[in-house]
C-alpha cells in the first residue's frame, strides 16, 4: 500500500504519482525504513556520548592519581632529603614529573589540586635541597 506524502491519499501499489495532487508517492516501507534509520542514528549518538563521558571521567581519575603520587613523592623527597640530599633531589624531580602529568592529563579547565600541591612541594624541595647541598659543601670545603 502506498500513500501520497502531500495529500495522504491511499494509492495502488504500482502508482508513482498521486492522481489527486500529482505529487510523488512514498511507500509505507520507505517510511518505516526512514524512521528506523533515524532511531538507529539517535541510539548510536547516545552510545558515542556515553563513551566520551566514560573516557573523560577515566582521564580525570588518572589525572588525580598522578597529582596525588606527585604530591606524596614531593613530601617524601623533603623528608628523605634531610638524610640523603641526592636521593631527596632525585625524588623531588620525580614528584615534579608526576605532578606535571597530573596537570597535563586534566581535560577540563579546572586544575587538579593534588598536582598543584605536588609540583609546588617538589619544586620547593629540590630548590631547598640543592641550596642546602651547596651551603654544606662550601662549609666542608668540598
TrEMBL record:
Keyword annotations from UniProtKB, A to Z: Membrane, Transmembrane, Transmembrane helix
Annotated TM spans: 68-101, 113-135
Region Disordered: start-end pairs: 35-58
Domain of life: Bacteria
Stretches with biased composition (Basic and acidic residues): 35-49
Protein name: DUF4190 domain-containing protein
Amino acid at each position: 500500500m502506498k500513500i501520497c506524502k502531500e495529500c495522504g491519499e491511499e494509492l495502488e501499489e504500482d502508482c508513482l504519482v498521486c492522481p489527486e495532487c500529482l505529487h510523488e508517492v512514498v511507500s509505507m516501507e520507505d517510511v518505516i525504513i526512514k524512521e528506523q534509520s533515524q532511531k538507529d542514528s539517535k541510539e548510536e549518538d547516545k552510545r558515542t556520548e556515553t563513551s566520551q563521558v566514560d573516557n573523560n571521567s577515566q582521564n580525570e581519575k588518572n589525572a588525580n592519581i598522578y597529582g596525588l603520587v606527585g604530591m606524596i613523592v614531593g613530601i617524601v623527597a623533603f623528608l628523605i632529603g634531610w638524610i640523603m640530599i641526592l636521593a631527596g633531589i632525585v625524588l623531588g624531580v620525580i614528584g615534579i614529573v608526576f605532578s606535571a602529568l597530573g596537570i597535563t592529563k586534566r581535560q577540563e579547565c579546572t586544575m587538579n589540586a593534588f598536582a598543584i600541591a605536588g609540583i609546588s612541594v617538589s619544586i620547593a624541595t629540590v630548590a631547598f635541597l640543592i641550596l642546602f647541598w651547596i651551603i654544606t659543601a662550601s662549609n666542608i670545603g668540598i
